[in-house]
Amino acid sequence: MFNRKPIEERIADRVAKRPPLKEGKHFEHKPALIVFLVVIGLVLVKFVGMFVLMQMGVH
Question: Which residue windows are transmembrane per the record (predicted)?
Fold first, then answer.
């Protein structure tokens, strides 16, 4: 449509232009790391809150 490549080809071209992932890195970009840390933080807060409520005797 409108003389554009299909979305799959455009994505493949963009991925091919990326440099290889550096040795020892687990996240390709900063937003992925931030989302991962926020999710882990929320899980930890949930468990700490659960244990606090259990110690207080709230069911």
Answer: 32-54
- Helices within the chain (DSSP H only): 7-17, 30-56
Structure tokens at 6: 């299909």
Average pLDDT across the chain, whole number: 88
In which residue ranges of the chain is pLDDT below 50? none
Among left, alpha and beta (phi > 0; psi -120 to 50; other), residue 18 is beta
Q: Are 41 and 32 in contact (CB under 8 A)?
A: no
Q: Is the dihedral of CA 46, 50, 52, 58 positive or negative?
A: positive
As a whole number of Å, the CA-based R_g of the chain is: 21
